[in-house]
Amino acid sequence: MSRRMLIAGNWKMNGDAAQVDAFARDVTQGSDSLSADLLVCVPFVYIERMKQGLAGSRVALGAQNLAAEVDAGAFTGEVNGAMLADTGCSHVIVGHSERRAIYGETDAVVAAKADACVAANLKPIVCVGETLEQREADETEAVLGAQIAALFEQCDAATLAQVTIAYEPIWAIGTGRSATPEQAQGVHAFLRGQIADRDATLAQSVQLLYGGSVKPDNAAALFAGADVDGALVGGASLKADSFLDIAHAAG
Ligand code: 13P
User: Fold this and answer.
1) Is residue 96 part of a domain?
2) What pLDDT score was predicted for residue 2?
3) Residue 169, in any domain of the structure
4) Judging by beta carbons within 10 Å of its beta carbon (0-12, 13-18, 19+), is residue 2 exposed, middle or buried?
5) Looking at the predicted structure, is the pLDDT value of residue 58 above 80?
6) Within-domain flag for 1
7) Which of 1, 93, 219, 242 is the most exposed place for a label (fewest CB within 10 A)?
8) Residues with beta carbon inside 6 Å of ligand 1?
9) Predicted confidence band of residue 251 (pLDDT cuts 50, 70, 90)
10) Ligand 1 atom closest to Cα of 232?
11) Which of 96, 98, 188, 248 is catalytic?
12) Ligand 1, closest atom to CA 173?
């Protein structure tokens, strides 16, 4: 089955109003000829501004987190899926390693947030990945297998049908040291196999993104992997030119 390519930007806690405006203007001008799907996930407070800037473009909007609680209520500081859908988002990044490591999000929280996305008609991009210590101890497949198992055990079936998985080796995030194309393809094939063990049809359609120091100069080689269906891009998504160069590498 041919799967669409998705190039997703994760701005993390970066950017300001001027940067949002410049990015939206330049990406809108530069993205017409692309065949890959494009998505940019900005801080909550800039989603509306990015939406205005991207009006008429084919770039979709996403958030980087959401509340596990579905219904509105007394959850000070939280933003629920319905609000994000209302603001024009189509996707939400869930369970990024920074949220797992810094904010203590467990597999159970990640699963609940993925379910909360789908309850609001949003697509969850669920992140998985191993630390350098785990890779060097030959635990990569055990760690990723456990993260996939938790997702399948804890999420609703309706959620699994909507999920995109992002493989983000923690040692490659923000380090300039990407996984090699062979490492990325190897892990993606493993992840697709884990999913196939549970649902062969879903395994064929699920998009598997690679994230971790994706740049214009390594994107094409990474995308050559048969099981690499795009990228989740951090630093290189903050400027339109590098984001577009990566998207061009995807076709
Ligand atoms: P970098 O592309 O900056 O390594 O970040 C990757 C990432 O964490 C995307 O979610």
Assistant:
1) yes
2) 82
3) yes
4) exposed
5) yes
6) no
7) 1
8) 10, 96, 168, 173-174, 211-214, 232-236
9) confident
10) 9
11) 96
12) 4
